[in-house]
Amino acid sequence: MLTTRQVDAYHALTVVAPGIVERFRPGHFVGVAVGGPHTSMLTRRAFSIHDVKPDYGGTVEFVFAVNGPGTAWLAGRRARDTLDLVGPLGRPFPLPRDPVNCVMVGGEYGSAMLFAVADALQRRGCRVDFVLGAASADRVFGAMRARRMGETTTLTTEDGSLGMRGRVTDVLPGVIADVRADAVYACGPMEMLRGVTDVAVEFDIPVQVAVEERMACGIGVCMTCVLPVIGDDGVTRMVRSCVEGPVFRGERVRFDDVGTIPFDALGAPGGGSRNVG
Amino acid sequence: MLTTRQVDAYHALTVVAPGIVERFRPGHFVGVAVGGPHTSMLTRRAFSIHDVKPDYGGTVEFVFAVNGPGTAWLAGRRARDTLDLVGPLGRPFPLPRDPVNCVMVGGEYGSAMLFAVADALQRRGCRVDFVLGAASADRVFGAMRARRMGETTTLTTEDGSLGMRGRVTDVLPGVIADVRADAVYACGPMEMLRGVTDVAVEFDIPVQVAVEERMACGIGVCMTCVLPVIGDDGVTRMVRSCVEGPVFRGERVRFDDVGTIPFDALGAPGGGSRNVG
Amino acid sequence: MSVDMRTYLGHVELANPVVTAAGCAGSGAELAQFFDLGRIGALTTRSITMAPRAGRPTPRMAETPSGLLNAVGLQGPGVDAFLARELPWLAQRNIRTVVSIGGGTVAEYTALARRLNDAPGVAAVEVNLSCPNIEDRGRVFARDGAASAEVIASVRAVMRYDVPVVAKLSPDTADIVTVARACVDGGADALSMINNPLGMSIDTETMLPSLAAGTGGLSGPAVRPLAVRCVWQVRAALPTVPIIGMGGVLTGRDAFEFILAGACAVAVGTALFHDPYACLRVLRELEELVAARGYTRLADVIGLAHRPPGATTRHRTDFEESPL
Amino acid sequence: MSVDMRTYLGHVELANPVVTAAGCAGSGAELAQFFDLGRIGALTTRSITMAPRAGRPTPRMAETPSGLLNAVGLQGPGVDAFLARELPWLAQRNIRTVVSIGGGTVAEYTALARRLNDAPGVAAVEVNLSCPNIEDRGRVFARDGAASAEVIASVRAVMRYDVPVVAKLSPDTADIVTVARACVDGGADALSMINNPLGMSIDTETMLPSLAAGTGGLSGPAVRPLAVRCVWQVRAALPTVPIIGMGGVLTGRDAFEFILAGACAVAVGTALFHDPYACLRVLRELEELVAARGYTRLADVIGLAHRPPGATTRHRTDFEESPL
Ligand SMILES: Cc1cc2nc3c(=O)[nH]c(=O)nc-3n(C[C@H](O)[C@H](O)[C@H](O)COP(=O)(O)OP(=O)(O)OC[C@H]3O[C@@H](n4cnc5c(N)ncnc54)[C@H](O)[C@@H]3O)c2cc1C
Ligand SMILES: Cc1cc2nc3c(=O)[nH]c(=O)nc-3n(C[C@H](O)[C@H](O)[C@H](O)COP(=O)(O)OP(=O)(O)OC[C@H]3O[C@@H](n4cnc5c(N)ncnc54)[C@H](O)[C@@H]3O)c2cc1C
Ligand SMILES: Cc1cc2nc3c(=O)[nH]c(=O)nc-3n(C[C@H](O)[C@H](O)[C@H](O)COP(=O)(O)O)c2cc1C
Ligand SMILES: Cc1cc2nc3c(=O)[nH]c(=O)nc-3n(C[C@H](O)[C@H](O)[C@H](O)COP(=O)(O)O)c2cc1C
Ligand code: FES
Ligand code: FES
């Protein structure tokens, strides 16, 4: 590991990981082992890649909030400690071929992964505008960077401590209309993604969301990270957010049914059989 | 924690622990938590106290060999890390009232605890001689200090890389005879303690041994650290080495029967009942 | 905000729900050097047997990931010495004492219960059913509802009416609810779970079992998910029976897990080996957690995790306190 | 010194004893991105069911101390899609495949076995007995010897003679040996253990179960002592029956523990979630440990911990190698 820094409510860790940088595309995440040798914490923690840099053969930066014992342990790491990463994982954001207008919507630490996307979009000649929100000012991540990169940047906080009081979905329709957006990219809490998707659907523009589900493996083998997504054939399947996501077309995700098995999903229980395995 | 140092095959950790120093008497040990928060290692590791100093309100030093995951973790600690200690634990060495001649016999890291005993003995006017042994030169602990403190110091190694080739029990009879020893104090592997006891019994002088048994608690509540010891009433009981020991009169310990329940021990199985608990 | 932590094992009131687990608190005197035993809900003794027992050979313990294997084999002084020395010591200090008993036959359990009947200072009797039944090829009583119920019924029959009989169950059975129900039908006033499931580890250096006894009981946080599940299942099936939950409680959070699953008291065992003060720390942490969620009585959170997911939790602060 | 790591499930030879655990290796294609699946002993599929299954709602996983709770609910594409896509993919690559099957009735297991009969590339069939028996109030087959044996006998009866039938057992039973013996009497060629014991955890923030399904299966190092004990007990009772050991294997040392207890093959499950390369690492570490102890054949260390404590271990290097 290289450096650690604290950004408002968040911690940022930069790790030398050339193998990951080589294959990185915006939207990827990493699986980070926590707790050190002989830890009682078995599963890797998933973090979106915030930034990659060419230094030291290639470094990866991720940003996180302390949430439980694993992230608390990570927050205690010091410069020059080593960290065990697997990645890059997940399906990255699809990028448009044409130079279109894109709105980047980020909630809480979800903003962190959007800058690499915005960068790639700008290199393709896209216009990029930001809408970032959080509960309070110290939880809005990347406002400065957004202001530097975006044509416009709109901030919201629920307590009004920064930008507009409210949620990103309160201001998003205005931004989409103002900038004549062609597409929306969003990352943040599920509730926000649902709202953002609704707005985009209303404007009839495509929306790409990066979702967050509890993951035990991150590589597609454990089947714990599923959510109901409608396929090209119109059939809802419980798909793995780690390998078939975390990026999905927003309107394909059945946000209302997350945490359930919709009755019309492929293989939904009919006979009522129930299994341990 | 204050400082760490490496002494030949051993690591030594010095920890600020005024509460332990206050009550310390030679022969005491400490229970050290290993692995940090959320470790999978539940039990404390037992280490004899090598030294206490008045610095910083009171420091405790213990010496250890890397043996498994817990000691490996300890060996990785750095200056200014903190350590979680419970102590002082165990029954210390009884000291003679009169200024008698004492031979201190130490095997491997077992020597470490003897210097505090020797110090206390010397302050009572006792003559102290050392016999220290180990498999090889780098595993003999405290030879220099023994040379400084003891009237004589005899070293043995099994590979002959330091002192006499052989075991402490090979040279002990000679030393006892030479110095007209009145008592023996010993700490080291069980096999050595058995041999030392045999020698002392032959010379008909008292021998105090500090034993080592696997301990889950160190405070007398788990009953895992027992060994067969003959009581004043002549009855063998399975006694706890953590609170009734680790120091015992050598001739009371049934070394040949360690790891068994002697048929004549109090409560030895007769009816053949067997329990999980 | 302080929380009313009182709880009940049948008619016996405990000042708070934190007790020691059987066999993990020595005779009491060892822990008393670290804290005042009067401040915990109760002390549970090791399982007392009729005759003195030397227990199993060493090594008796091995560490496993987040767990501990032990094969102590109920080493203890026997009931006579217990009644002569250990129980009076506890009684003199007004330490609420749950006496655990273990036997190899129904008759032995019954005889033990009889011996305890006149002894002062027995708050409850916990029947350790994880003992091998000598009359049934050493099959552990707790495996099986009928064998467990027979022991409980006999103990209940001889025990004074005002001393609750607690059946201590093991997860090593096909269906914990069946065994629990059999025990309650047999007269158990309360249930305690879980005793150690049987485990084993092998020393890959010597290429032999780590424990002299081969197998041993597994305790510690590793078994907590099994224990919480057992408490949950039994609470769902028998909602009115008091349950003492145990297995891997290290913190107040862990204790709270058992309370939410339906336990009215929580025992601390292996944690004492690491932290002699564990009981008081767990109690303090538990009280803080309950208070932080807006409750003023422990009784109001017992089994709360059984409410349907959508249901709102009733915060007792919303109501007038009724005098109990 | 290289070690002959070959091992046998009945008449089926595996190049080495390290296999993946059912339900922990996806369809194979996911892991194939990390290493060549042809280098492990075998890949075990998730439990295949007749119909496609969407599984259980999320959250499906929760971490516990040194363990993992999961309630996936056998999500999978159903046997038709499995035979049409997943099995051929594996067969084309010559990956030794153990197909796990799960059902709610004896008839369903039997129908699955029939479907697998003509499929090429089935090295063995593993019968996941930890499924609820719809015809017996949802009681899990594996709890009970008779129910397990009935499933095994039916599967054995329809399955091609040269495909071994492996019965996968659960520790959630009163006596694993009784169930194991019943399965062998019913025709099982090998046994595999352990499937996940049932566990639970409660989220003390929401004060509700962590898993949407309430309870879930516990895996990882926390259960290893239970698993080693099961393997040990079954090996002692049925020394000639091949056993696939599993439960919490993270390293070669852990795998060696199972081999010494009597397993002839070892499955890696939860460890794959942490380290996609775990199988090859475990294999390498295991080979090194066996070699370091002076053995040249894995076969010579299987069950070695059952020798009496005093007995000297026979190092195969002391003997002339006999051509196998
Ligand atoms: C694709 C993806 C990208 C993510 N990116 C970020 C990021 O950039 N910054 C950030 O702060 N967080 C991110 N998260 C959430 C992050 O993984 C969790 O905060 C973290 O795992 C919590 O670990 P813990 O030990 O602190 O908490 P605990 O609650 O103790 O974790 C216990 C278990 O639950 C899992 N878990 C708990 N919360 C979550 C969650 N929200 N999502 C997934 N698994 C969870 C953990 O992985 C672990 O296995 C991301 C999650 C996913 C799935
Ligand atoms: C009273 C006493 C004093 C000791 N003093 C010292 C000392 O001064 N220096 C030193 O190097 N070692 C000493 N030991 C031994 C030391 O406790 C073990 O080396 C250490 O516990 C090994 O831990 P581990 O995690 O490295 O090994 P592991 O083998 O992984 O330990 C696993 C478990 O077994 C126990 N254990 C393993 N070996 C021993 C052992 N030999 N004695 C007791 N418990 C053991 C551990 O405590 C732990 O619970 C002493 C032991 C006792 C009982
Ligand atoms: C060393 C040790 C000794 C035990 N002795 C007994 C006993 O005598 N009687 C009994 O019913 N349970 C006994 N148990 C089981 C505990 O009371 C408790 O049920 C179990 O260990 C789970 O709790 P824990 O994980 O907090 O230790 C013992 C456990 C340990 C670790
Ligand atoms: C996420 C997950 C899914 C599983 N699915 C199955 C399954 O489909 N069929 C089965 O027999 N066992 C299943 N198991 C059990 C494993 O095959 C294995 O028996 C158990 O997890 C113990 O091994 P481990 O600790 O190495 O994971 C599953 C386990 C996990 C963790
Ligand atoms: S996290 Fe394991 S399949 Fe997605
Ligand atoms: S180590 Fe627990 S009683 Fe001695």
Can you give keywords for this protein?
heterotetramer; A: 277 residues; alpha/beta; Elongation Factor Tu (Ef-tu), domain 3; Rossmann fold; 3 domains; seven-stranded mixed β-sheet; four-stranded antiparallel β-sheet; C: 324 residues; TIM Barrel; eight-stranded parallel β-sheet; globular; disordered C terminus; binds flavin-adenine dinucleotide; binds flavin mononucleotide; binds FE2/S2 (inorganic) cluster; Aldolase_TIM (chains C, D); FMN (chains C, D); flavoprotein (chains C, D); EC 1.3.-.- (chains C, D)
Q: What this model shows, in words?
A:
The complex is a heterotetramer, with two copies of chain A (277 residues) and two copies of chain C (324 residues). Chain A has 277 residues and is of the alpha/beta class. Helix content of chain A is 20%, strand content 28%. Chain A has six helices and 16 strands. In chain A, the strands form four sheets. A seven-stranded mixed sheet of chain A has the order 11-10-9-8-12-13-16. In chain A, strands 1-2-6-5 form a four-stranded antiparallel sheet. A three-stranded antiparallel sheet of chain A has the order 4-3-7. Chain A starts with a strand and ends in a 28-residue tail after the last strand. Helices cover 30% and strands 20% of the residues of chain C. In chain C, the strands form five sheets. An eight-stranded parallel sheet of chain C has the order 3-18-17-12-11-8-7-4, covered by helices on one side. In chain C, strands 5-6-16-13 form a four-stranded antiparallel sheet, with no helix packed on it. In chain C, helix 7 (252-261) links the parallel strand 17 and strand 18. Chains in contact: A-B, A-D, B-C, C-D. The structure holds flavin-adenine dinucleotide (2 copies), flavin mononucleotide (FMN) (2 copies) and FE2/S2 (inorganic) cluster (2 copies). The site of one flavin-adenine dinucleotide has 22 residues of chain B, from strand 4, strand 6 and helix 2. Chains A, B: Its cofactor is FAD; [2Fe-2S] cluster. Chains A, B: InterPro entries: Cyt_c3_hydrogenase_gsu (IPR012165), Dihydroorotate_DH_ele_sf (IPR037117), Dihydroorotate_DH_Fe-S-bd (IPR019480), FAD-bd_FR_type (IPR017927), FNR_nucleotide-bd (IPR039261), PyrK_electron_transfer (IPR050353), Riboflavin_synthase-like_b-brl (IPR017938). Chains A, B: This is Dihydroorotate dehydrogenase B (NAD(+)), electron transfer subunit.
